[in-house]
Each structure stands twice: as structure tokens, then as C-alpha cells.
Design goal:
FAD/NAD(P)-binding domain; Actin-binding Protein, T-fimbrin, domain 1; five-stranded antiparallel beta sheet; LIM domain; oxidoreductase; alpha/beta; F-actin_Monoox_Mical; F-actin monooxygenase; FAD binding; seven-stranded mixed beta sheet
Length: 985
């Protein structure tokens, strides 16, 4: 209503100024206050949620406001919202005003629902910088993020954006504009059921809150959504706990004075120990600070985050006493705050090469230096995403979003990205219910989508962000929204008619049984029986035990011949030449199957019988690979003929893709690009290639790489030093011969090794010359090591298969950094994030391997009579054998992780090449020299190679996921058919 004496122009100017004050408010309290003043001065009723947005648009008509209305109108015109009629009459309560809760509220408001958000705090104080995936940046820009915060995504690193506080403020303002009610300083306690014996059933579901006299105490709702973080207070959601190795993170915010000197300091999108050991070793030597990784982003503050090692924190006095319990270890009473401030400042100074002029701490909402140390060892995930409750004639849809649903692994930065996806999925469920769909069907669809959520990455969601809506089909390629059936979620409809006691418990749960596809119960007697069957009928072979029967090498050669007859000419073997027979077998098994030898041919031919434990360890690996296959099935696989009975899922194409991928991965030189053609073709080809990559479909829809001519010529080419390729094992877990996918192509791309003649015995470690027991034996390039003795000759860091290089002339091993010195110091953000995850998993695998080896050595000493023991030999042997099997599985997993790290390098390499090529293409060709044009041509060739490699991997990964899902279903059916149940404790 226009006030008396006020002209239209004055009113318009006032409305514009009030709206600008609201848009630029920098705190939660300031935003709510500015919004209240705007509504009061302009006679707008914020409780009129149906008409508030249109009334505000009519009032605020300055150009800045109009630009925002254009963006919001575009979003509101999505067909899924049905012009704000899709959820008309629906009342929704959202617990928590974090980014995911507010993003959910915005979507529900666009659907036409009445939405109320309650938040227990009245300040947004988290300065932590967020990782934003490309789609989240696109989504926030579509909501007008730039209108509220002009520096949105203006940093040097595209996919790193604002602190949580800024993001919350943006979303809060959009929510208020769309008619969402936001109440601060209100704490949710519990749900209140509709009372019994109501004559007309007027009172529905409500919430018990604090303060008790708050107006929200009388608010009745049809939908309640928990978005209050890991402390979720809604009943009915069991939580699974995922616990890893101890991980201690430190975050620090320093004052950014926005000087020229500060602007020149390079941000660090990721330095990880696995890729830059020199940096961390120098940091430790100079300062005593021992980190796993460090990141630096420049935003409103200079933001550093690092993962510190516990012993370093103890040595520097940051942690006062060492406790086993993490809560006590990082408790406030056990942390020296001054030492923590010094530790973080010193690490930040070294990480930026002392280039920041001053490192003064910013202050947090408690007016204290903004530094924090916390544990991210444990993560929680809800067992289900939603449920229905029905009581006294009133139904209630209950759902979770954000960290309440799926807590992210902190260094990966998936919180907002997966949180927003879950918000859209949840809103889609609410829409379905409002449209009259059956509750069980809605729950089944929601749980199907929830199964996808932990698997989502920037690579496997749809790339056409303009098409994103709340409809899951627009976001997930090849979506199967019915993999969970309605009868499977019957327990999530709680109406008092079934026992829902288990559901009512919301604490963390652990399985009492651990089911695994790869778990097996192999006994030495069964191993011997298998060997006897496989070698039956061969000349000179009579397997009666696991020692002397294998001495002359014929039994091992016969076993190989039965499995792969094309690999060995058994009739040409001489029974008297034991050393040659055994060495031939060891070489073939290593090059073809990726299984390392545990001894040498000469030792096998020695006077005494082969060691039983050593033979059990070695033959068990062949057994694990082939025991489910009939004779020579591997040979038929090699030739492309698969036995139908052994292939429940089409896998020939998978094998071909595996061969293609690994040949590409290990290839170090490509056929030279043709020199013909005109130089201007480079620009058109590059433009098409970059456009294709940026607009390409998600992994599920990615085109399969075709077999290319001349593929067999792309063999491993040795570098200038006589380095040799390594058998790194199979990349993917497969129920059919998990290592065979790797084996099929290995001899085509690996240079045959010539072992030195002066090798030591297999019982002696090449590095320390001490005794190495069978269970801890580690074979590389014909040498034998303790695992901890396999180290780089330059820096002394522990090496892993696939992550090392070998100089056969000098007989020395190196980490790849000190061999090539070609790794970049700073990886792309997402490459770095993935490397951090792989690094931590490699460390955990290493710890588990060391533990297994220690236990195995203890048992082995008893079996050899070198230590006293009370248990029966048969029991000890069974225990030792199980340790060996577990160690084999860990070794395969470790090899897979190393190859994944290599794939991440490809991703980072592609990103850097694309950036460089774009920069070069911005210059007109007429201004370039012939050398620059040739470099551009070479760069394009390299990009095409990388894209081709990654296309092959993407196709193979998708097929592998499909196969693993099918195997999971088969396993579940098998377990249930035998009368087993999944139990929770």
C-alpha cells in the first residue's frame, strides 16, 4: 500500500534500497532483520506463502532485482513444479538450516508446499571452504548466487568455492524470497503423535520443541525432513558406522588483507605424500611437522586444511598425552591450543614457501583464533533414506538429507554435491506422494535412488546441467529406479501393525557376520586333492604331498599345462633338469598370471625337499584363481571362446575392454602422428574434441571403445634406462578368474625379465640380508624382501608394486618421483582428492598386511619348531593358511589401488592439457611459429590418447558395476536359500 504523500518513484526507490540491503546482508541475523524491515515497509505478508514471491516481484522492480527474478522464474517454470501446484496444501517441516536443509526447502516451496525451517542457532559461522562439483556451481548460479555474492566461484580453482557461511546466506535469502518460513533459536526434541479419541481428527503430527512456548509448537505437518547433521534426532533410522585408520584433520583460517603480495601466492589444490614425498620429507626435516597432505585456498580468508600424523602432534606438544580412545586423544583438555596455533601456522608458512606477508589468525564466532583439530576416522550413513508413519488416521512422511543421511568422507568434499542430489531425490518423493502415488512404491523408488548416492561422482552423473530438475532421470544416466521392490520396504511403513522395534533404534549398527564374494574355506587337504586331479595322467608326475612331489618341477609344469596348454610344451621337459623346469614354471606363472615366485628354480632343485609352507602359499594362489574352472578354460578364454556354464553375465566384451585398457595404460610411446595435413586442422579438431568431452554423456552412455588396428603393435617400450614393466595384477574384481583379465594381455605388453645370476636365496632379504619367512616374503624382479625393506634407493620411502621403477644394471629400486622427476607438485583438485583416498587405503592395506605377516611368522616359527606352541599342528596349519589367503586378497586389492592412482594421473593430465590447448587456441594461427603449431598438433594428439584411455576405463567400470550388482544379488539369494540371516547387534 502506498503511503500518503509518497510518489510512485519514491516508493520504487525505497523498495529497491530495502531489497539491496536484504541482498547484501552478511549475517544470518542481519538477513532476517533486513527481510523483516522489507516486508513491513512494503506491506508484504511473509505468511502468505502462495503469493509472497509474486507480490515481492511486483514491489522490487529495480534492475538488480529483475535480474534475479529472471533466474528464479526460469527455475520455477520447470514442468515438474506444475506452476507451484504439484504439492499444493502439503505442509513440510525441515529440521536444520544448513545448505542441504535450505536447498530442500527451496524446492518444496517451488512445488507449492508450505515450508517451515527450524534452526537451533542464529549465526552462520563456518568458514571452511567447500568443494563444489560443476553441477552444484551451475545449480547455485541458476538460483542467483552471483546476485547475492559477487565473488561466487571467482577463485583460481574453478570447483572450489565459497565457505559454508556464504553458501548458507545465499540459500537463506532465496528461501525467504520464495515464501519459506525460517525460525532460528528453535531446537527440535521429538515428534508428537496425533492424539487418540479425536472426534474429527483435527490434530495431526506436531513437534516437541524448545522453547516450549514458541509458535511452531502448534504447527501441524505432513512431511518432516531431518537435515540437522550427524546428530539426527528423528527415530526410525538405523545408522551404519564406517571406521578407518586414525585421521586427524587441522583447519586454519588466516586474515586475508587482499594485498597484491597475497594475491600472487599460488593456491594449493592438493599436495599428497603419495605424489610428492620430497615436499613432505623436507617439511618434516625442517619443522618436525609430519603431514599426509595439505591444501590452501584463498577466499575471504587464507584457508588451510591438512591431515597430520598423531606422532608428529605428540612430538610438537599439540597433543599432551597419547590415548587409544580418539575422543580422549583430541579432547579439549588434551590439546595445547598455543602449540596447535604454532603448528598450523608453521605448516602454512612452509606450504606457501613463506610468501604470505603475515599469517594472523581470523577469529571465529566465539572471538577465538579460527583453528580447529578434529577426527574424521568414523563416518555414518543411514540404513534407509525415508519412512512413513501412520497414527490415528494421520500419515507422516519422514526423510533425511545431508549429513543426517550420508556423512561424507571429509577430504573428498562430497557433502554439498551428494547432499543436493539427495535433496532433489527427497523432494521428488514428496511430489509423488502429493500426486497420490502408493506410499510403498514411493519408498521403494526412494531407496533405489539412495543406493546410487554413495557411488555418484562428477564423472558418472549427467553432464547436461541445463536439463537438471528434481526428476532423477535428468540427473542419473541409465537409471533403474525400481531395483528395490515395494515388498522390500514394507517394514518402512510403520503403522503399529508390525514389529518395528529394530527400526526405532537410531544408533550405529554393525553386522555380526561379514559376507564377501571372495571369502573361501580352503584347507590344505582340499588343495592337495585339487592338485592331484589337475596333474593326473602326466608323465613322471605323482602328487602325494605338498613338498617332495614338486621337487623336479614336472608337477608344477603339468599344472600350468592343464590350465593353459598353449603356454608350455610338457613333452619337451627333462625330468633330470629340475632347476630349469622349476624356473620355467615360475617365470610363466609370474608373466602370465601375475603371481610372484616365493623361491628360485635352483633352490627347488636343492638336496632337501621344498618347504611345505612355501609350496602351500604358492600353489594356493593358483588354486584361488582357477579352482572353479574346468581344465583349460583359461586357454579358451584366451582364444575368445567362453564356456556358457561359466558366464552367467556376458563377459567376453569385458575381457576385451580389460585388455584394451591395460595395453593403453602401460603403453609409454604411441605411434607417431602423421605429419601430413594442414595446420589449421588442429584448431577445428581440437574444438570438436573439447566440445565433445565437455558435452559427453555420463559413463553409462559413453560409447564403447572399438578394437583398433595395429593394437598389437602398441607394446611396452623400455625407457632410456633398462627399466622393466611390472605385473601389477588385475584392476577389477570379477567372480570369473579375478586375475585372468590382467593375465590375458600381459605377455603382449611386458618385457621378458632376465634375472641376475647372483641372486641370494629366497630365505634371505635382499635389503637387510636377514631371514624372511614365507608369509612375509615379497618378490620383485627376482629378489626377495621383507615388505618394509622394499624401499627407494634415494629417499628411503617404502615402495609398492606398480609404484616403483627398477634399474637392472645397478640392481636398484626407486620411487617414480626419483626416477623420472616428472610428477607435478600440485595435482588438480579432484585428482588430489582421489589420491588422498587411495593413499589412505594403501596405508590401511599396508598395516593389515604387516599385522597378518607378524601373526603368520609367529605361527610359522611354531610349525618349524623354532618356537614353543601348545596347539595341534593341523590347527596351526589351518590358521596359517587362512592368513595366507587373506594376505593374497590384500595384495590384489593393493595392486588395484595403485592402478587407480595411475588413472587419476591421466585425469589430471587431461585437464592440464585442455587448459593449455585452450590458451594456445585463443591466439590467432597467423601469429604462431611453425614450432608452436607443431606443439599444438602434438598436444591435440596427446589429448586424444588420454580421452581414448579414459573412455575404455569408463566402459569397463560400468560393465563391472553391473556384474557386481548381479553377483551381490546372487550371493544374497544363496545365503538366504541356506537359511542364513543378516543379524544386527
Amino acid at each position: 500500500m502506498q503511503k500518503m504523500g509518497e510518489t510512485e518513484d519514491e516508493r520504487t526507490a525505497q523498495a529497491g534500497q530495502l531489497f539491496e540491503n536484504f541482498a547484501q546482508a552478511s549475517t544470518c541475523k542481519g538477513t532476517l532483520q533486513a527481510f523483516s524491515i522489507l516486508c513491513r515497509q512494503m506491506d508484504l505478508d511473509p505468511l502468505d506463502y502462495r503469493n509472497f514471491y509474486s507480490n515481492l516481484k511486483a514491489t522490487a522492480t529495480n534492475w538488480k532485482a529483475k535480474a534475479l527474478w529472471t533466474k528464479l522464474d526460469k527455475r520455477a517454470n520447470h514442468k515438474e513444479y506444475s506452476k507451484a501446484k504439484a504439492c499444493e496444501g502439503m505442509r513440510c517441516l525441515i529440521i536444520g538450516g544448513g545448505p542441504c536443509g535450505l536447498r530442500t526447502a527451496i524446492e518444496l516451496a517451488l512445488l507449492g508446499a508450505k515450508v517451515v525451517v527450524m534452526e537451533k542457532r542464529d549465526t552462520f559461522s563456518r568458514n571452511n571452504v567447500l568443494h563444489l562439483w560443476p553441477y552444484t556451481i551451475h545449480d547455485l548460479r541458476g538460483l542467483g548466487a552471483k546476485k547475492f555474492y559477487g565473488k561466487f566461484c571467482a577463485g583460481a580453482i574453478d570447483h572450489i568455492s565459497e565457505c559454508i557461511r556464504q553458501l548458507q546466506l545465499m540459500l537463506l535469502k532465496v528461501a525467504l524470497i520464495l515464501g519459506v518460513e525460517v525460525h532460528v533459536n528453535v531446537d527440535f526434541v521429538q515428534l508428537l503423535e496425533p492424539p487418540e479419541n479425536q472426534e474429527n481428527g483435527e490434530t495431526g503430527w506436531r513437534a516437541e520443541i524448545r522453547p516450549l512456548n514458541h509458535p511452531l509448537a502448534d504447527f501441524e505437518f505432513d512431511v518432516v525432513i531431518g537435515a540437522n547433521g550427524r546428530r539426527n534426532t528423528l527415530d526410525g533410522f538405523r545408522r551404519k558406522e564406517f571406521r578407518g585408520k586414525l585421521a586427524i584433520a587441522i583447519t586454519a583460517n588466516f586474515v586475508n588483507r587482499n594485498t597484491t603480495a597475497e594475491a600472487k601466492v599460488e593456491e594449493i589444490s592438493g599436495v599428497a605424500f603419495i605424489f610428492n614425498q620430497k615436499f613432505f620429507l623436507e617439511l618434516k626435516e625442517e619443522t618436525g611437522i609430519d603431514l599426509e597432505n595439505i591444501v590452501y585456498y584463498r577466499d575471504n580468508t587464507h584457508y588451510f586444511v591438512m591431515t597430520a600424523k598423531k606422532q608428529s602432534l605428540l612430538d610438537k606438544g599439540v597433543i599432551i598425552h597419547d590415548y587409544i580412545e580418539t575422543e580422549k586423544l583430541l579432547g579439549q583438555d588434551n590439546v595445547n591450543q598455543e602449540a596447535l596455533l604454532s603448528y598450523a601456522r608453521e605448516a602454512a608458512d612452509f606450504g606457501t614457501n613463506y610468501q604470505l606477508p603475515s599469517l594472523d589468525y581470523a577469529v571465529n564466532h566465539c572471538n577465538q583464533p579460527d583453528v580447529a583439530m578434529f577426527d574424521f576416522t568414523c563416518m555414518y550413513a543411514s540404513e534407509n533414506a525415508a519412512l512413513f508413519r501412520e497414527k490415528n488416521g494421520h500419515q507422516l512422511l519422514v526423510a533425511l538429507v545431508g549429513d543426517s543421511l550420508l556423512e561424507p568422507f571429509w577430504p573428498m568434499g562430497t557433502g554439498c554435491a551428494r547432499g543436493f542430489l539427495a535433496a532433489f531425490d527427497t523432494v521428488w518423493m514428496v511430489r509423488g506422494w502429493a500426486q497420490g502415488r502408493n506410499p510403498l512404491e514411493i519408498l521403494a523408488e526412494r531407496e533405489s535412488l539412495y543406493r546410487l548416492l554413495p557411488q555418484t561422482t562428477t564423472e558418472n552423473i549427467s553432464k547436461n546441467f541445463d536439463q537438471y530438475t528434481i526428476d532423477p532421470v535428468t540427473r542419473y544416466p541409465n537409471l533403474n529406479s525400481s531395483c528395490v521392490k515395494p515388498h522390500q520396504v514394507r517394514h518402512l511403513f510403520i503403522d503399529g501393525q508390525q514389529d518395528s522395534g529394530l527400526l526405532e533404534c537410531g544408533g550405529p549398527t554393525h553386522r555380526s557376520v561379514n559376507l564377501s564374494r571372495q571369502e573361501s574355506d580352503i584347507r590344505p587337504s582340499r588343495l592337495l586333492l585339487w592338485c592331484q586331479k589337475q596333474t593326473q595322467g602326466y608323465r613322471g608326475v605323482d602328487v602325494t604331498n605338498l613338498t617332495s612331489s614338486w621337487k623336479n618341477g614336472l608337477a608344477l609344469c603339468a599344472l600350468i599345462h592343464r590350465l593353459r596348454p598353449e603356454l608350455i610344451d610338457f613333452d619337451s621337459l627333462n625330468e633330470e633338469d629340475s632347476a630349469k623346469n622349476n624356473q620355467l614354471a615360475f617365470d610363466i606363472v609370474e608373466s602370465e598370471f601375475g603371481i610372484q615366485p616365493v623361491t628360485t628354480g635352483k633352490e627347488m632343485a636343492a638336496d632337501q625337499d621344498p618347504d611345505k609352507l612355501m609350496m602351500v602359499l604358492y600353489i594356493s594362489k593358483l588354486y584361488e584363481m582357477f579352482h572353479n574352472s574346468p581344465a583349460s578354460v583359461a586357454g579358451r578364454l584366451q582364444s575368445g571362446v567362453l564356456c556358457p556354464a561359466l558366464t552367467p553375465h556376458p563377459s567376453h566384451h569385458t575381457v576385451q575392454n580389460a585388455m584394451s585398457f591395460h595395453l593403453l595404460l602401460f603403453r609409454t610411446s604411441a605411434p607417431p602422428a602423421g605429419e601430413g595435413g594442414e595446420q589449421n586442422k588442429v584448431r577445428s579438431m581440437a574444438t570438436q574434441l573439447l566440445a565433445k568431452f565437455e558435452e559427453s554423456a555420463a559413463p553409462g552412455g559413453a560409447p564403447r571403445s572399438k578394437n583398433r588396428e595395429g593394437f598389437s603393435d602398441w607394446l611396452f617400450v623400455a625407457p632410456s634406462l633398462p627399466m622393466t614393466a611390472l605385473t601389477t595384477g588385475c584392476l577389477f574384481r570379477c567372480s570369473l578368474y579375478p586375475d585372468l583379465l590382467f593375465v590375458c594381455f600381459l605377455r603382449q605388453c611386458v618385457v621378458r625379465k632376465e634375472f641376475p645370476q647372483n641372486l641370494g636365496g629366497s630365505d634371505t632379504c635382499h635389503h637387510c640380508s636377514k631371514r624372511v619367512y614365507v608369509v612375509e616374503r615379497f618378490s620383485v624382479e627376482g629378489y626377495f624382501f621383507h615388505r618394509e625393506c622394499f624401499r627407494c634407493d634415494v629417499c628411503g620411502s617404502t615402495l609398492r608394486l606398480g609404484g616403483h621403477a627398477y634399474d637392472s644394471q645397478l640392481g636398484k629400486f626407486y620411487c617414480k618421483l626419483h626416477y623420472s622427476q616428472r610428477r607435478p607438485n600440485h595435482l588438480g583438485c579432484f585428482c588430489f582428492i582421489g589420491v588422498k583416498v587411495i593413499q589412505r587405503q594403501l596405508e590401511e592395506v599396508g598395516e593389515k598386511q604387516r599385522d597378518l605377516e607378524e601373526r603368520g611368522v609367529t605361527i610359522e616359527k611354531v610349525l618349524r619348531g623354532e618356537a614353543p606352541g601348545e596347539q595341534h599342528e593341523h590347527e596351526l596349519l589351518q590358521m596359517w593358511f587362512k592368513l595366507v589367503l587373506e594376505k593374497n586378497r590384500l595384495a590384489r586389492y593393493e595392486e588395484e589401488l595403485v592402478i587407480f592412482a595411475q588413472e587419476l594421473e591421466l585425469e589430471d593430465r587431461q585437464s592440464r592439457l585442455q587448459t593449455d590447448l585452450r590458451s594456445r587456441m585463443s591466439i590467432d594461427d597467423s601469429r604462431k611459429s611453425s614450432v608452436e603449431l607443431a606443439e599444438e598438433q602434438q598436444m591435440l594428439t596427446e589429448i586424444m590418447e588420454v580421452v581414448e584411455k579414459r573412455d575404455t576405463l569408463v566402459s569397463l567400470l560400468e560393465e563391472q558395476r553391473i556384474q557386481e550388482r548381479a553377483e551381490d544379488r546372487d550371493l544374497e539369494s544363496l545365503v538366504l536359500s541356506r537359511g542364513y540371516q543378516f543379524h544386527w547387534t
